[in-house]
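Page 37, continued from 36.
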């Protein structure tokens, strides 16, 4: 059996079976809620680098070849993930807010979404990134980070430097963040067909099998998700948001099933 935890998402794999979902840890109770609607709960505790579930199942922490943290993200240092949270910097272009969560990052410039992507942070200070949205979409690179208490200096390959200060609350979302900020995957997705959305600030992008299909802006109310596509079309959809589950009603017809997605 294989378990993977990244941000608030999780994967359970056993032989040829694999299930993905989200997890929570309350006291000594680990709960995993999967995209297919099933759930599992165990009593757990750590024994050095081992994870013990229900006193009988023992898991050993693994690293990918080359020392990379599993599935991206960052190495734990004394039980903490040093980049996790929200950081603020002043640049010639204005205020830059950086939000790191799991293996994903989002940059906001003057309160507006500017760039997002994935990253791997290494113990030697290297920040390897891949940009998926923004002016530099598709770009890959490596920056270097030097910590100075509750701030860090990030150096680019060309010698540029930005000093970022941690916000008081590491869990505080960035500017313009909404309750659906992040990445969502449809519950009915399969290994062959994966459909999902990314919401960032007031922008969204839809993906199928990792390929971007549509982009636009959105507005969220208590009962509706209003999508304004860049193509000019508008869709007003009924929605229900509960923690890490988003249900969208595409029609008033009771014979048409709503679409459920899980936060990743």
């Amino acid at each position: 059996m294989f378990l993977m935890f990244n941000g608030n998402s999780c994967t359970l794999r056993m032989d040829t079976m694999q299930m993905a979902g989200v997890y929570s840890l309350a006291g000594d109770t680990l709960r995993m809620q999967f995209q297919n609607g099933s759930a599992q709960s165990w009593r757990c505790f750590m024994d050095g680098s081992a994870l013990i579930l229900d006193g009988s199942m023992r898991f050993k922490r693994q690293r990918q070849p080359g020392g990379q943290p599993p599935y991206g993200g960052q190495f734990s240092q004394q039980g903490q993930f040093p980049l996790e949270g929200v950081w603020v910097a002043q640049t010639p272009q204005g205020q830059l807010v950086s939000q790191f969560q799991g293996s994903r990052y989002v940059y906001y410039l003057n309160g507006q979404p500017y760039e997002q992507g994935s990253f791997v942070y290494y113990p030697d200070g290297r920040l390897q990134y891949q940009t998926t949205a923004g002016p530099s979409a598709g770009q890959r690179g490596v920056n270097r980070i030097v910590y100075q208490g509750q701030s860090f200096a990030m150096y680019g390959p060309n010698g540029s430097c930005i000093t970022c200060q941690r916000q008081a609350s590491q869990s505080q979302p960035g500017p313009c963040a909404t309750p659906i900020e992040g990445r969502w995957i449809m519950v009915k997705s399969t290994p062959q067909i994966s459909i999902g959305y990314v919401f960032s600030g007031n922008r969204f992008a839809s993906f199928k099998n990792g390929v971007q299909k549509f982009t636009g802006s959105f507005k969220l109310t208590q009962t509706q998700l209003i999508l304004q596509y860049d193509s000019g079309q508008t869709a007003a959809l009924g929605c229900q948001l509960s923690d890490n589950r988003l249900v969208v009603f595409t029609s008033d017809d009771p014979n048409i099933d709503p679409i459920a997605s899980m936060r990743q």
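Residues 185 and 196 are 4 Å apart (CA to CA). Flag for discussion at group meeting. The chain has three domains: 2-62, 85-166, 182-263.
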